[in-house]
Amino acid sequence: MSPSVLIGIDLGGTNVRVGAVSRQGEVLAWAEAPIEASRGPQAGLQRISGLIEQVLAETRGGALMGIGMGATGPIDRQRGSIQNPYTLPTWEDVPIVQPLRERFGVPVALENDADAAALGEAWVGAGRDRERVLMVTVGTGIGSAFIYRGEVYRGVGGAHPEAGHLVLDMNGPPCYCGARGCWESLAAGPAIARRAQALAQGAPTIMLDLAGGRLESIDARVVVMAAQAGDALAQRVVQETAAYLALGLVNLLIAFLPDVVILGGGVMRAYPVFAPYLHSMIKRHSVVVPLDAVQLEVARLGVQAGAVGAAYAALKLIKGG
Fold it and tell me: What is the end-to-end Cα distance of the chain in Å, rounded?
């Protein structure tokens, strides 16, 4: 009998990643490609379907059980559609579940991408065997998800809570959501770049050298490299950013008190640079509630977390969970 295979899809604003995943969470085959959202949703669906067929072929006859997708939001899980995400221009109210279900003849689960990544980490990653798992992803934006006893916490009507839009500074920079001083507008990758570029103008710093002499090319990666090399200005940017990262985390920890916080995303690849500031502020606020008992972990599944978690969502759908 052919082994059972789950398909997990991680649909982002730039790339789509597809994995064939076993019932135990092992990635058996992997493929990814640019989604090219501007070409429209039909072209995107064709690309996704092609990647599914590619990874299925690599499993050498594995029997497809189900498909799960973690997609950049907002999404409508009940209708199985993607709802005009900021990161997927032209994808306005796009049915995604039904076309995949009709093409491949299996159940299809749809989740927010942050929820999918958290499910993956809770299933076979840094949150395995933990009852309360909070995941925070820091990259172009800040995403969050809370898993309790293997289930995604959902808001009213099944909506996905967006901790990245916690307001930390009412006088802070404007955010595309319409507010000012949102967590992600203060601590995500673009905020780090903006802060560094403002400070680097006319100041002695190796950040400009690392960016090829172009102020606009200073990004979060450059800041981290310069800080690790001892650049005082870059270290100031890291410290200011870490203060906002820690403040947002403290708010979430006070509200949820999870067993573990899993930190993922491109910015958190530099976790050791930010860690001392994060731990210091968390310890400082461990007065009324035991925040220092919460463990901070770096995500273990890397870019595969979303696809693995989406596959797990499909498995839960099949089992009726």
Answer: 25
Q: Say whether 126-299 and 4-123+303-319 share the same fold.
A: yes
Q: Considering the domain 126-299, what is its CATH architecture? A: 2-Layer Sandwich (3.30)
Angstrom distance (rounded) from CA 317 to CA 321 = 6
CB 222 within 8 A of CB 209: no
Alpha carbons 128 and 126: distance in angstroms, whole number? 6
Dihedral sign (CA 48, 5, 131, 158): positive
Instruction: Judge whether 21 and 27 are in contact, CB under 8 Å.
Output: yes
**Alpha-carbon gap, residue 91 to 15, rounded angstroms:** 14
Q: Where are the domains of the chain?
A: 4-123+303-319, 126-299
| CB-based contacts of 152-157 (< 8 A; 24+ apart in sequence) | 152/111, 152/115, 152/118, 152/119
Q: How far apart are CA 115 and CA 306, in angstroms?
A: 8
Q: What is the pLDDT of residues 252-285, one digit of tens each?
A: 999 999 999 999 988 999 999 999 999 998 888 8
Residue of 121, 163, 68 lying closest to 264 (CA atoms) = 121
Q: How far, in Å, CA of 260 to CA of 287, rounded?
A: 19
- Fold for 4-123+303-319, please state it: Nucleotidyltransferase; domain 5 (3.30.420)
pLDDT tens digits, 45-67: 999 999 999 999 999 877 999 99
Please tell me the pTM assigned to this model: 0.90
Both tokens of 258, joined, read: 């999870």
Exposed e or buried b for every residue in 67-100, given b needs 16+ CB within 10 A? bbbbbbbebbbeebbbeebebbeebeebebbebb
**Cα four-point dihedral sign 34, 38, 42, 43:** negative
Distance of CA 74 to the CA centre of its chain: 14
